[in-house]
Amino acid sequence: MRHLQHSMIAACLIWLMPAGVSAQQPSAAGRVKLVSGAASIVRAGQVIAAQPGQAVFESDSLRTGTDGRIGVTLADDTRVSVGPGSEVRLDSFAYAPENGRVGLALQFIRGVAIYVSGQIAKLAPDAVRLETPAATLGVRGTTLAVRVSE
Amino acid sequence: MTMARALPLLLLSATVMTACGAARTAPAPQARPLARSTGQDLVVLLPDPGSGMVGRAMVSSGGATVTLAAARDATTVSGAQPPGAVTTLGEDDVERLFGGALASMPLPPRHFTLYFNFESEELTAQSRALVREVLQAVKERPAPDVAVVGHTDTTGTRTANVALGLRRANTVRTILVDTGVDTSAIAVTSHGEAQLLVPTRDNVYEARNRRVDIAVR
Lengths: 150, 217
What we know:
Chain A is mainly beta and 150 residues long. Chain A has helices at 2-16, 119-123, and strands at 30-36, 39-43, 46-49, 55-56, 61-64, 69-74, 79-82, 87-96, 101-116, 128-131, 136-140, 143-148. Chain B is of the alpha+beta class. At the A-B interface, strand 1, strand 6, strand 7, strand 9 and strand 11 of A face strand 1, strand 2, helix 2, helix 4 and strand 8 of B. Strand 12 of chain A pairs antiparallel with strand 1 (41-46) of chain B.
């Protein structure tokens, strides 16, 4: 019986799979690849110590201490690396090109960070929105380094 | 400021922004030295890691836009002021200012396409040889993500092709797992005949559409 239940759950999962990027469940926007020193993900007010392999979701902030660094790769190949004493927020992320839904918004809050564009910037450059406290940045397939001084 | 006085200003800034957006050219900003003082945002255009290609970036603030178009072009922005004049930083400046962030940049994702024999889940000989490169890419990356997406040509029904695409993707998944890739790192999906690499009408044999796309991130 137990085996049957597992099989049924597995069958349901397999049935869901062909849907690809499933809209129902919040899928990860990307994953932490590199961490050194004090680095965390801030999710809904909770500060979580960052680890390689950790999923990153829309609305997460990447925050580092004075000796911290963190590097993230998003599902559309966009890469973001954050230097010491810094914070960058992934305001929004959508990558479902088969449904025509793509978008990326990053907010550089403080410190230093680097953005390397991915597929979203290729498919729809205007769907990429990068913001610093003072400026809005538009990109045409590119790499940007940003420093926000306090 | 009264509304009567504010309106032309608003219109002007809207016009300037529209013009900048359309032409992607910069209105002459006031020349300012690249200050190192606090309270400023510094934006620097870098060559793309790996390819060395230089893209373009538009920095907008205070109703004005400047375009960064060459390697290490930089501008500063403070408050609601227009961006400062574009200057070009040296490589040592970039290293000094951004070394900490550059050091934690993940490796670029890699993409592979494997092809299949007609109506089969069997890789072509050429694609079998490519599997080793996929594995190499997975091993090089810390905390790798492997997205495996199956595709078919338009022969057969749409539903059957989703299933076939999934079988092909699972074939690739099995090969990767057998050679040591962690199961949890692999996500398998199928688009069936919905995303043709080579557009065709229905019921057309097309070898290039019988494929599995792999992204290693």
